[in-house]
Amino acid sequence: MGPMSRTQKPMSFETALKSFIGYLEGSGKSFNTITNYRLDLLGFRNFLIQQSSQKKKKPIQLQGIEPKDLLRFHDDLVRRGQKANTRRRKFLTVNKFFSYLVQRKKLPLEFGKKVPSPQKIERVPVTVSTQHLLQVIEALPRVALLEARNRLLLWILAETGAQVTEVAQLRFDDFTAEKNSIGGWVQILGKGERKVPVSHELREEIQVMRRRSPKSPWLFTGFNRQGPLGGAISARGVELVVKHYAPQFTDSKFTPRTLRHSVVLHWFEQGLSRAEIQARLGLKTAYAFRSYEPLLKAK
């Protein structure tokens, strides 16, 4: 590492990392995403410590970092035998960290210049038959309010492919029925705002939940040991629900993204075009849809 131009105020790497994590939390990133960012950046910090002549005597300071340290970090990952996609993820994480600090005027502008990232090796995502998913969901208990909430949450994920942050913010008023009473629509808000069709059976189940929770505008309320909290479930809460029921769906690793990938494949098998699927996922460009291409090509 070498010296760089001075910023307005000195800042340690640890303080910068804490600020960045706070920014991620404030922007609604999921618990797993934030955890991965933190671990990747701690790995970068450890690399900087190894490169420093002072080693662990003093905390790493932003003033001691160079833009080239990102490339050196990647070269070190290669030497340590990290897989290509792992290297790429860590590379992009540090790049985003740099960009955030440039915006906060804690690093010079040259740190904000985009450095080409390593090429991503696309893998075929894990999927589960939508028919199997819905059969398992149909058999889940729903006597207690918490059981009914969890069952409905999994059902909506399996039919819409919505992300955890989107599902957490759903309200009863976001659902509308078709004029012929067959099926309906859910209005998903956020960056990828769109309307996604839902089945008649799911619409009826939502109405049942509304009658059981007449005072709450939220489709999925948070719970603790004493019962419902009144407010909306958190994105982390959605992840925990999926994790709890995962063994009932498959022996493989099962996450909310598995449900999203599975419904993409289901839509493709139904004959929907890539453009239609992209719209249902709330992806604005074909480039954003590229991660699903290996799945569709394999099919």
List keywords for this structure.
299 residues, mainly alpha, 3-stranded antiparallel beta sheet, two-stranded antiparallel sheet, 5 strands, 50% helix, globular, disordered N terminus
Describe the structure.
With 299 residues, the chain is mainly α. The protein has helices spanning 13-26, 31-51, 69-79, 84-103, 130-139, 145-160, 164-168, 200-212, 235-245, 256-269, 274-281, 293-298; strands spanning 175-177, 184-188, 194-198, 221-224, 227-232. The strands form two sheets. The chain has a three-stranded antiparallel β-sheet. Strands 4-5 form a two-stranded antiparallel ribbon. The longest helix has 21 residues, at 31-51. The model is unreliable at 1-7 (pLDDT under 50).
Short description:
This protein is mainly alpha-helical and about 300 residues long. The chain has twelve helices and five strands.
Helix content: 40-55%
Largest β-sheet summary: 3 strands, antiparallel
Radius of gyration: 23 Å
**Average residue pLDDT:** 86
Unreliable residue runs: 1-7
The beta-strand count equals 5
The H-and-E topology, N to C, reads as: HHHHHHHEEEHEEHHHH
* Secondary structure tally, helices: 12
What spatial form do the alpha-carbon principal axes imply? globular
* Alpha-beta classification: mainly alpha
Q: DSSP strand (E) fraction?
A: 5-15%
Distance between the termini: 48 Å
- Identify the strand order in the major beta sheet: 1-2-3
